[in-house]
Amino acid sequence: DKGTLLRAMLTSQGIEPYVTLIGMNGRYNASDRVAVNSRFDHFIVAVVVPPDVTLPSYAEPAILQDPTLGRLLFIDVTNDLNSIGSMSPALAGERAFVAAPNNGHLVTTPGWNSNAHRIESALRLNLSPSGAVVYERRTSHFGGFAEEVRAAQRVSLVEREKFVKQTLRLLWIGADISDYKAEVETGEGASVEEIKWRLAEPPTIEREKKILIFPRARTGFSCVSLTDRKTPVVYAHPMFLSIDTDVTTLPPDTRLPDAKS
Known about the structure:
Layout: H1 2-12, E1 17-22, E2 42-48, E3 63-66, E4 70-75, E5 95-98, E6 105-108, E7 118-127, E8 133-141, H2 144-155, H3 157-171, E9 176-183, E10 191-199, E11 204-205, E12 210-211, E13 240-248
Parallel strand pairs: 7-13
Antiparallel strand pairs: 1-2, 1-5, 2-4, 3-4, 5-6, 7-8, 8-10, 9-10, 11-12
C-alpha cells in the first residue's frame, strides 16, 4: 500500500507519521464516545510537522493544528489527482481517527473552506486603435477544481484542449484562438491553463458603450437560475473565484470610471 510505504520512508528519516482512518461515503458525524470502525473506509497519513519547520502557504489547506500532537499535514497518496498540500473535497471537513500511540483520537480534517478549492484567473486585454482586442488568460485551479481538470486531462489532453476552446468560442462569438498551453501540476499544486484569442471588437454594454472589464466573470462556476426556486443550491464543496483583469493600450479617448462608480 502506498500509505504504508510513505510511513516507512518518513520513519526512516525521523519524521513521525500516523495512520489516519477516514470515511469517503458521505459527511459522517463519527461519535466521540462510541467506537464504530465501520464509519471509516479509507486510509491516509497524518505527518507531524516539527515546530522549527516552515511549510509554504499553499500547504495550509492540508494542515491541522492538533492540541496534543501539534501540526499535522494530511497526505492521501492513493489519490494521484491530488497534490501534497491539498485536501480532496471527499476528505475535507470529515471526522477522522488519528491512530497515534497512546493518544488515538478523532479530528476534523482541514480543507473544508473556499480558499482550499479555488480558481484564480488573470485576464490581460490588449486594445488596438482599430477596435480589435487580444485576450490572454491564465487560469489556475486549486483543490477540487485541480482534481477535476487533471481527471479530464488523464482521459485525453487533446480532448481537454478541445473542450476549453469550444467553451471559449461559445462564450466569445467570433473568437480567433491562437494559443493554448497547460501545466498539469505546478510547484504550488495548481493545475494551470493558458489561452490566447482575438476579437475584432471587444464586448461592450451597448446601451452605455462601456467595455466590460470583467467579461464572462461567472463562467468559472456552474450557475443555475434562482427564479422561482424553492430549494437551496448545493455545491460539492466550498469554492472561491478570483479574477484579475489588466487592460493595456487603451485608445486616447478612453475615459476611466471614477472610484465611486
